[in-house]
Specification:
single chain, 575 residues, alpha/beta, 6-stranded mixed β-sheet, 4-stranded antiparallel β-sheet, 10 strands
Length: 575
């Protein structure tokens, strides 16, 4: 898993190698200082040799200064490597998300995806930025310092070797206990993010229903859950330091007792004992640092597993990217199409759907709420794939086209109208980033955007705000329709996208589409019969089946469901 994650370091590997080199040289210089100090005490001080003391003192100072410089460089290189790794992982995750179909996105909550792009990546990059130094120093300190310690006195070194297994057992026990706790903590962060996201997205609903207190209580619950999970994890993590210190101080006391006797018996010099204690402190500190690295890695492994879940998510809609086929006319045919969201589901969302749309026709789709009208049209641009049957465009299976070209040839104005931060012109250019102002104004004229554009504060340059808060629901719908028209698609799908527009404006939009874009195939999903009565064909969807197809007049004569819808809307209008 770690190899997979570190493969994203790519061009930042050079900084990681430079950091490790600086760390290795710095550690070596630090290890030389106790040896020099031992000579200074045992030779210079014992013999009152002032020049020798100065000579060794200068050597120690040079080692310290060079180690200081290398320590600063290693910190810089480690930060560059860690931040670069984090940036590449986020980029890879985000690029993978762009390939997700609606089904893939349904596997994860949006709040969880946000956490995996932010908090989980931050855990990994921090582990590299702050963990590379102890990771590089610890093995060198441990190996070299242990070697020097044995050279000074093998009897004292055996005492240290007794402490190593105790430290190892403590560290392993802590790591085994803490890893699942870190995973639970990250999922608790998901819940907090989800609650905050839902509240901010639906803030107008919360305010209008005066449910602020309820939202506060809901946040308290998830926030307390995160606090509790964090406490459980960190209560275990903090045991690392006192465990290490307990062993370290116990080892030092043992060394002082045994070393004192050796000095008293003349078997060990004071400088050697001082040097030995310095090396033991370096060794134990290196072990403490290494244990900290292991704890960081444990948390990083939990985050890495969550990131890899995204990177390894199997894309269920495969792209025939080598296809040179292009959509020329916009002819559509559904051939015995069945669909369900989950392959293991018992029931289909809709079953055995077949119909044919000629190029340039306007088709209306109507039916009760929950009849799967939206799901039906989402199969055309392959936002979902049909479970059984096939869909043809211009006589070719839609899977024969590249996904990019297919979706570029089909414009969908969804039920939920989405505008992005930026000006109205910026939003319109999502349809065609190279569109001229003349083309923009023509599309806006067809969608009746020009009726209100000039009244906005800065006209077409008016900032839309977050999700288009500066315009009404009907205005937002018209902007989205104009954006779709600018795309110049062969097929235009309007999914109940004039529900917030008055009937007079809707009639103007419908007339503009018919006169200005006669060759474009248009599919209109609506709740109002007035929105589809002028269509060439109207499809009635009921409980996942096609109940009837025909013109308004034909359905009024032969289709009971259509008649009932018409009568109910007529009664509502009369009232």
């Amino acid at each position: 898993m770690l190899r997979r994650i570190f493969s994203y370091m790519k061009e930042y590997k050079k900084y990681a190698y430079l950091a490790l080199i600086c760390i290795a040289v710095e550690a070596t210089l630090e290890l030389l200082v106790p040896r020099i100090m031992a000579d200074l005490i045992d030779v210079g001080v014992a013999n009152a040799n002032t020049s020798y003391i100065y000579q060794k003192g200068i050597q120690m100072g040079i080692c310290a200064i060079i180690a200081l410089i290398l320590g600063g460089l290693s910190s810089r290189f480690s930060a560059l490597a860690g931040q670069g790794l984090g940036a590449n992982i986020r980029k890879a995750e985000y690029e993978k998300l762009q390939t997700f179909s609606f089904s893939n996105i349904d596997h994860f909550r949006v709040s969880s995806l946000v956490t995996r792009l932010t908090s989980d990546v931050t855990n990994i990059q921090n582990a590299v930025s702050t963990g590379m130094r102890p990771f590089g120093r610890s093995p060198i300190m441990l190996i070299v310092a242990t070697t020097f310690a044995f050279q000074i006195n093998s009897t004292l070194a055996i005492v240290f070797l007794v402490a190593l297994p105790i430290l190892a057992i403590m560290l392993i026990a802590i790591i085994i206990t803490i890893r699942p706790l870190y995973s639970k903590m990250q999922y608790a962060i998901d819940l907090v993010n989800r609650t905050v996201q839902e509240n901010l997205t639906a803030i107008r609903v919360v305010k209008s229903y005066v449910r602020g207190d309820y939202e506060i209580d809901k946040f308290k619950d998830v926030n307390s859950n995160l606090k509790n999970e964090s406490e459980k994890a960190f209560k275990t993590a903090v045991l690392n330091m006192p465990s290490m210190q307990f062993v370290m101080y116990g080892t030092i006391l043992s060394l002082l007792l045994i070393g004192g006797r050796l000095v008293k018996n003349g078997e060990l010099m004071i400088g050697q004992l001082t040097s030995f204690l310095s090396y033991v402190l370096l060794i134990l500190n290196s072990l403490m640092m290494m244990s900290g690295v292991f704890l960081q890695m444990t948390r990083s492994l939990s985050s890495a597993a969550r990131i890899i879940e995204i990177l390894d998510e199997e894309i269920d809609i495969r792209d025939n990217s080598n296809s040179l086929l292009t959509v020329e006319k916009g002819e559509i045919e559904f051939n015995h199409v069945w669909f369900k969201y989950n392959k293991n589901a018992k029931e289909y969302v809709f079953s055995d759907v077949s119909f044919h749309i000629e190029p340039g026709q306007t088709i209306g789709i109507i039916g009760q709420t929950g009849a799967a009208k939206t799901t039906l049209v989402q199969l055309i641009p392959r936002l979902y794939d049909a479970t059984k049957g096939n869909i043809l465009i211009d006589g070719r299976d839609i899977k024969d086209y590249s996904v990019r070209h297919l979706r570029d040839s089909i414009a969908v104005v969804l039920q939920k109208n989405t505008l992005f931060s930026g000006s109205m012109t910026d939003n319109l250019k999502w349809g065609d980033e190279n569109a001229t102002m003349e083309e923009i104004k023509k599309a806006c004229h067809i969608a009746c955007v020009d009726e209100f554009a000039d009244r906005l504060a800065s006209g077409y340059d008016t900032e839309m705000g977050q999700e288009g808060v500066n315009v009404s629901g009907g205005q937002k719908q018209r902007i989205c329709i104009a954006r779709a028209i600018l795309k110049k698609p062969k097929v235009l799908i309007l999914d109940d996208s004039t529900s917030a527009v008055d009937t007079a404006t809707e009639a103007k939009i419908r007339e503009g589409l018919a006169t200005e874009l006669p060759d474009m195939t248009k599919i209109i999903i609506a709740q109002r019969i007035s929105s589809v009565r002028h269509a060439d064909q109207i499809i009635i969807i009921d409980k996942g089946y096609i109940n009837g197809i025909g013109t308004h007049e034909e359905l009024m004569k032969n289709n009971r469901i259509y008649q009932e819808i018409y009568e109910s809307q007529k009664e509502g209008a009369d009232l």
